[in-house]
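The instructor's notes for this session suggest beginning with a concrete chain rather than abstract definitions. Hand out the sequence below and ask the class to guess, before any prediction is shown, which regions might be ordered.
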Amino acid sequence: MTLRLATPTSFAIMEDGTVTGEVSEIVLSKQDLREVTGFAAACAESVLKVFEGDQPGDSRPRDAVRAAWEFAGGGERGKSLRDTASAALKAAKSADTAAAREAAWAAMSAAGAAYLHPLAKATQVKHILGAGAYAARAAELVADDDRGVGAEHLAQTLRRATPVVVDVLKRFPAAPGGGGRVGELIRALDADLRSLTFAE
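After discussion, reveal the predicted structure:
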C-alpha cells in the first residue's frame, strides 16, 4: 500500500479565475509507517518503567507499545492501535506524577505513529518524534527536571533511528514552534535527525 497526497506548493490565480499550481507529493508506504512506528515504540518502551513505577497495576501504556510493535512487525493498522492509544491517554490522566504522565503519552504516541498522514504539514512531525520527545521529558522529570538527562536521552533516541525513519522525516517540513518543553525536545530531535548521514 502506498499513500499519496498531492498538495499545491505554489499557485497562481488566472484572469478567468482558475487556479494553476505546481504539485508535490508526500509518499508513504506501509513499510515506511512500520519503520516509524517501530522507532516510536522503542522510544516509548524505554520509559515504561517510569509509568509502571507510579501505577504498577496499569498495563495500558505497555499495551499501546505492544500494539505498536505488532504493527511494526507486520500486523495490520486497525482497531487495536486506536483503542490502546486511547487507553494510554486515559492512563496518563490517572498518573500521580508528571513523569509518569509523560511516559504514558510516549506510549500513546507510539501507537499513534502508525497514523502518520501524508500531509505536507509540520504538525505531522509529532507523529514521528512525539514518542521520543515525551520519553525524554519523562526522563528529565525523573531526574528533577535535569535538562542534561533529556539531552542524553535524545542522544539514545538518535541511535534508534534507521535510515528509513530519517528519510521519512525529511519528506516533511521542519517541526513547528510551540508545545512547551516537549515541543523544544521535538525540534531538537528533528534538527539532529535531519543532520544524520548513513554510510552507503
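Then share the key points. The two ends are 26 Å apart (CA to CA). Confidence is low (pLDDT under 50) at residues 1-23.
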